[in-house]
Write a structure and sequence with these properties.
By secondary structure, the protein is of the alpha/beta class. The chain is built from twelve helices and 20 strands. The protein binds adenosine-5'-diphosphate (ADP), aspartic acid and magnesium ion. Adenosine-5'-diphosphate binds next to loops.
């Protein structure tokens, strides 16, 4: 007998028939003699709709009320799945974040889970009850519902698995695992049987939305065995695990992309000590994350400085630069039509040439690289957004990742 957390994403609970399908999958695990806790997302499209309502009501709405609104999607699906399970004769009960409680910090809209009081759920699971937990939500120190950031039900699932000391955390979604790149864009993408925590963390944080980044961080920290699989088939999925569990290691495991960044260039900034601090300090004070940075060679004592910020932060960043910067510059340029493409693989630690293959492949397709950044296990480049698909396909082939 095992204790399992099963998580079902938005598409998997997208309508009544799909929720009934999920109920059958849960019942099958229960019938195998396992203790099961389930967590669900809102029906697909619902969270977007709720976010849009808030924005229509006021573009700068209160984050506590945003949470009050957007957390409702998961309340609906947890109740509906509990009913569907009861219809199949499974003893199920829905739970909202505050009822367990799943305790978060006070960062409304992107809260972090601090603790889960799992004792009551464990007691009930031991009696054969199946808790159906609303994903994406918890309760903050102000005793109000807090949500965990978009895609946060993955984090609910992994945190529950850690808190309930589960043997496995199964993340059911609309693809049957983690692929070498987004299978919706590159048809030849290959399913990975296993991927390391570290690579999955990079893939997620560099744009592969199949798992929320924080869920991978949490899985890595608590060594939760996470499996990504499809709720629409019985195909085996992808196991996220330690490096030593993977026998055949590829040089590059995956390619991710993110359209969430925007590029800012400050033209003719003076090239002297303190300038970078004078630019990035005010941005940090305004809570704006800067990702990639490149500074050009200095001409006549001035240089151009290019960096990226989140697309959603672009207008604020431009305001901060115009109003708060004491560093002189000639002009600012901003570009939203960019994409960050990254190749990821632990094999890079011990092999040279990965970056060169990337640069050559893009050059052969006539794609200009605007900014580069690297870390031990990834290389990222910023290119024009129009080339996203072309670049992904070409790189996928160049690193021999295409399915046979
Ligand atoms: P859910 O609603 O189940 O949480 P998501 O839409 O959040 O599902 O995540 C699944 C989607 O992630 C897939 O439909 C796929 O398009 C996308 N995706 C992006 N990169 C990858 C990848 N490397 N492997 C698998 N899926 C990916
Ligand atoms: N429903 C939330 C969202 O769409 C959380 C999730 O699906 O993981 O972001
Ligand atoms: Mg998701």
């Amino acid at each position: 007998m095992a204790r399992i957390v099963m998580k079902f994403g938005g598409t998997s609970v997208g309508d009544i028939a799909r929720i009934q399908n999920v109920a059958r999958k849960v019942k099958a695990e229960v019938d195998r003699g396992n203790q099961v806790a389930v967590t669900v997302s809102a029906m697909s499209g619902v969270t977007n709709q709720l976010v849009d309502y808030c924005t229509q009501m006021s573009p700068l709405h209160d984050a506590r009320e945003y949470d009050a609104v957007v957390a409702t999607g998961e309340q609906v699906t947890s109740g509906l799945l509990a009913i569907a399970l009861q219809e199949l004769g499974v003893n199920a009960r829905s739970w909202q974040g505050w009822q367990i409680p799943i305790i978060t910090d006070d960062a409304h809209g992107k809260a972090r889970i601090v603790d889960i009081k799992g004792e009551e759920l464990i007691r009930r699971m031991e009696r054969g009850e199946v808790p159906v937990v609303a994903g994406f939500q918890g309760v903050g120190p102000d005793n109000r519902t807090a949500t965990l950031g978009r895609g946060g039900s993955d984090t609910t699932a992994v945190a529950l698995a850690a808190g309930l000391k589960a043997d496995r955390c199964d993340i059911y979604t609309d693809v049957d695992g983690v692929y070498t790149t987004d299978p919706r864009i590159v048809k030849t993408a290959k399913k990975l049987n296993k991927i390391t925590y570290e690579e999955m963390l990079e893939m997620a944080s560099l744009g592969a939305k199949v798992l929320q980044t924080r869920s991978v961080e949490m899985a890595m920290k608590h060594r939760v065995r996470v499996q990504v699989l499809s709720s629409f088939s019985d195909a085996p999925g992808t196991l996220v695990c330690d490096e030593d569990e993977i026998v055949e290691k590829e040089l590059v495991s995956g390619i991710a992309y993110s359209r969430d960044e925007a590029k800012i260039t400050l033209v003719s900034v003076s090239d002297q000590p303190g300038v970078a601090a004078g630019i990035f300090g005010p941005l940090a004070d305004a809570n704006i994350n800067v990702d990639m940075i490149v500074q050009n060679v200095s001409r006549d004592g001035t240089t151009d400085l290019t960096f990226t910020v989140g697309k959603a932060d672009l207008d604020r960043a431009l305001n901060v630069i115009k109003e708060k910067l004491h560093v002189p510059y000639k002009t600012i340029m901003a570009d939203k039509n960019v994409v960050k493409v990254s190749v990821i693989g632990v094999g890079m630690r011990s092999h040279a040439g990965v970056a060169q293959t990337m640069f050559k492949t893009l050059a052969d397709k006539g794609i200009n690289i605007q900014v580069i950044s690297t870390s031990e296990i990834k290389v990222s480049v910023l290119i024009a957004e129009d080339y996203t698909e072309l670049a992904l396909r070409a790189l996928h082939t160049a690193y021999n990742l295409d399915a046979a």
